[in-house]
Each structure stands twice: as C-alpha cells, then as structure tokens.
Amino acid sequence: SFPFFGANANAATSGPLTAHPVEAFANQSGLTSSGDIPDTTKYSPHSFPQGGFVISLPDGWSSKSSTSSVLFTSTVNSVSISWTSTSSNQSVMAIATRDIATLKKSVVPFRLTSVQSVMLHAGPAVRENYQTKSAANPVTGRRYPLVVERFVFVHNRHVLFVSLSSPVGADNVDPWRIISQSIRFTK
C-alpha cells in the first residue's frame, strides 16, 4: 500500500490551501472565465520520439520545450510533460513515491489530496492529485489556487510524468481524461 494514500494523504503535507474564487480571466484560447476547457476543443496528436510517446493536446495552446520536457499552456491551464529513463526495472509505485517526496520539497505550497493506481490506454500508472498555487501574476502579483492531476508511467525503462493543471473550481474532467487516455508509448 502507498504511504500517502487516503486519509493519511493530508497528514504528510503542508496545511490546507485557502481557496479563493478565481477571478475572471481574459477569454483567450476559447476558455470560459472559470478556466473550463470547452467541450468543442479540438485535440491533435504530438509525437515525442526522444521520450518514446505520443499524446493528444488541445489545439492552439502555447508551448515551450527542452530536450526532456515540454509545457503546453492556455490562459490558466497547463499540461507539463517530462521524461527520463531508468537503469533498472523499477515499479511505477516506487517512482511515484520518490516523485511525491521531490514535489513536497520543490512545490510550495504543496497539499497532496490523493494517490491511486490507475489503468489507462498506455498501461498502468499512478495518479497523484495535489493542490498548489500559480506563479505570481506579473501585473497583480496574485497567486491563484490550482489543482494538479499528475500521472506517472514506467514503460520499457522509460519514465513519463504528465501534469494537468487547472484553477480550483474549473471543470476539466473530460479534457483531462481525453489527454491522459490519449498517451501511447512508441518505444
């Protein structure tokens, strides 16, 4: 069993985040003011040969990439993807345990809300749900509460992390499901 699962999840993290209503955002990339990704959004596959996977992402989002990561963003939502390899056969749960320990040190604030093994089209994964706050708005300096749904995969000694981030209160269950179920390994 996973040490942070269920009722113990909050005990191992910092205190609760104060939920503030998300201010209305400029309506860019077709988003509603609450950060919901519209049901009419189109998705296109993106191939990452160096990471050994393909994933479908919303059309029209900005992107930044490096040799082992890529970030896709809209006004208030983001999909952050990173990959690495491992020299030994490690379980996805072992890697997720280390990942959570790293997140607790690097993401401030960090409040783990759940961890669970899931089966997606790409295979077994661990879903880590947590809350944090956005980077400071460059104009107002405000930070907004975010929810993050992070998936950890291990496939043929390749490790893939996919983080789906939205403002608290946004209803992006369907878009996040479309993205997470679209992942396919190519190596």
What's the shape?
globular
Order of strands, widest sheet: 3-4-5-9-8-7-6
H-E string: EEEEEHEEEEHE
Strand content: 35-45%
Instruction: List unreliable stretches of 5+ residues.
Output: 1-32
Q: What gyration radius follows from the Cα positions, in whole Å?
A: 16 Å
Integer average pLDDT: 84
Main sheet, how many strands, which sense, barrel?
A: 7 strands, antiparallel
Number of helices: 2
Proportion in helices? 10-25%
Based on DSSP secondary structure assignment, what is the total number of beta strands? Answer: 10
Helix/strand class: mainly beta
C-alpha end-to-end distance:
29 Å
Describe, in plain words, how this protein is organized in 3D.
The protein is mostly beta strands. It contains two helices and ten strands; from the N terminus they run E-E-E-E-E-H-E-E-E-E-H-E. The strands form two sheets. A seven-stranded antiparallel β-sheet has the order 3-4-5-9-8-7-6. It has a three-stranded antiparallel β-sheet with strand order 1-2-10. The two termini are 29 Å apart. The N terminus is likely disordered.
